[in-house]
């Protein structure tokens, strides 16, 4: 069963190339995301590259790995988290005043059962955790906007 599509969107008064430079530098993900503490690619950032990540929520810290599934300069960056099967994407679209940036979390085949079990046991349940993820997406986009517009 597919999990709900989680998404957030923001308009940024900066050109696409400036916003892309911030999004595509995955080492900066901890600056944007309230949950991500580290994201490193093994090799250059490109489609097919693998990443090693560390996330944190309160006292809980957990590692993940992912693979970049789409890397289209100035348009889209997506990666699939191996541990839960979710796909996170950043899509950029030029607007009259700059860039529209959309972040999504998609789980076409559902989130892996072991991940849902951990969320239910340690993170207050799937619905509240997903709401927290959307709040985090909005925070991430606001931080990217502030950096791009400064």
TrEMBL record:
Domain of life: Bacteria
Record-linked InterPro entries: Polyketide_cyclase/dehydratase, START-like_dom_sf
Signal peptide as annotated in the record: none
One matching Pfam family: Polyketide_cyc2
Name under which the protein is recorded: SRPBCC family protein
Originating species: Mycobacterium deserti
């Amino acid at each position: 069963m597919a999990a709900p599509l989680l998404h957030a969107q923001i308009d940024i008064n900066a050109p696409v190339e400036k916003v892309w430079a911030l999004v595509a530098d995955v080492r900066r993900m901890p600056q944007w995301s309230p949950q991500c503490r580290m994201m490193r690619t093994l090799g250059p950032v490109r489609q097919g590259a693998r990443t090693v990540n560390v996330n944190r929520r309160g006292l809980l810290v957990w590692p993940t790995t992912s693979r970049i599934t789409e890397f289209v300069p100035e348009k889209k960056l997506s990666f699939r988290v191996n541990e839960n099967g979710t796909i996170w994407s950043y899509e950029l679209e030029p607007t009259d005043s700059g860039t529209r940036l959309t972040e999504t979390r998609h789980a076409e085949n559902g989130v892996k059962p072991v991940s849902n079990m951990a969320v239910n046991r340690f993170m207050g349940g799937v619905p509240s955790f997903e709401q927290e993820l959307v709040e985090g997406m909005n925070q991430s986009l606001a931080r990217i906007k502030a950096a791009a517009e400064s």
